[in-house]
Design a protein that fits this description.
It is a single chain. With 88 residues, this protein is an all-beta fold. It is built from no helices and five strands. It has one domain. It has strands at residues 2-7, 28-34, 46-51, 62-66, 77-80. It is extended. The protein starts with a strand and ends in an 8-residue tail after the last strand. The mean pLDDT is 83.
């Protein structure tokens, strides 16, 4: 699974099926996290996402939450990341 940050500021549309010759500026996206690159014993059904207060270095921090659905085969997790500025 991958998590992206999407920038809609300069987008004029998000559909690619407007027809031949249509001119539009799609949104841009930046990969925030590729879960295959981190060492988690298990990642389960993500049920929620939000933003923490800014970190002391002023960076944003998304938080993802999963729950175990009362199943012994699933896990409850709270995962926090640091969103680095572009070019970092």
């Amino acid at each position: 699974m991958r998590l992206y940050v999407v920038d809609l500021d300069h987008a004029t549309g998000i559909r690619s099926d407007w027809g031949e010759g249509a001119i539009y500026q799609p949104p841009t996206r930046r990969l925030l996290l590729d879960w295959s690159t981190i060492a988690l014993a298990k990642m389960d059904n993500l049920a929620g996402m939000g933003w923490r207060l800014r970190l002391s270095n002023s960076h944003r921090s998304p938080v993802l939450i999963s729950d175990d659905n009362l199943s012994p085969d699933e896990v409850t997790q709270q995962l926090a990341c640091e969103l680095l500025p572009c070019g970092s």
